[in-house]
# Entry
Amino acid sequence: MARSHITLAALATAAVPGFDPVQAQAFSTGMHGDFFAAIVTDAAGRELIVRVPNSAEAEAQLGAEKYALETMTAGIRSRLSFDVPTLVGRAPLGKTFGLVFEFLHGDQLTLSDFTPETGLPTSIGTAIASIHSLPTHFVSDAGLPTFSAQEVQRQTRELVSRAQATALLPAALSARWQEAVDDSSLWMFDPTVIHGSLGADSFIAGTDSVAGVLGWAALRVGDPAADMHWIINAPIEAQNIAFDSYGDSRHSLVDPKLRQRATLYSELELAKWLLHGVEQKSPEIVDDAIDMLDRLVDSVHQENTNAIGTDTAPVLTVTEVVELLDETPGDAASGRYRGMEPVTDDQRSSNSLSE
# Structure
């Protein structure tokens, strides 16, 4: 059932001692509608965002983010170059629950914002490096997933095998990906703390710099390249700036195959979309995935390379990526929760509590 902004304001009152809301604003969570949400404001101007899941999957994702954020102590957060959402309350609502967070102000980024003319590529490289520089023990001590390089290689090989088993992969991509997962030199990296589901829209920004990072449900120890895969789809100049900034921040700790694995993960997003279509028995999704895979083959051939090599170029142009993202629901393709999204002016529909 739908949850009104009035209901969510009441939940904030129950979840946060001493909070007395005077205004609630409905918040659009985007096209997928996994959550009911509202921004609630008190007389002092404090803004909180309330989230209530509307499915079992969304409930599990929100619960995972709650636990991840609770593991991020003040000491851990002080090591980051940006703000992280702060959980301030929880309250039951029917058969589910709602969470209340301090609202982080900023503009949600899109891939089209990621251009070399701004300071964002530098700031994003630094921000990701600060995540990867966190001590791994705080993740493992909390019982969150921890994967070795060998386990990551095995998981990636299994994904490629599943895609190959559909008999729908272009031969060129099947061979390219198989060579990558079998290349032991590609998988010689030191696991780090990773966000686990980073994309352009995970970031909120102020003026040409990252102000906050959202969506921590997949926090884990794993391959740092997994947090970089989306950068591969940006203009090459912006990519170079981001990877250089990351390297400067990580110093000698950056592995030489980071960018190649990021490229592989970027391409494998299409394999995940294909598998999603097969699993859902959706001819439309399968046909869409096949079309995108064919375009990827053309792009790879234009690069005159069939391997994920040292000088691997961007998989697609930014225009092509924007077109693919318009065609493909990203959350459905990846099965991942992007976490709390910031509010933009056109997402607010202000309503006083007296209405």
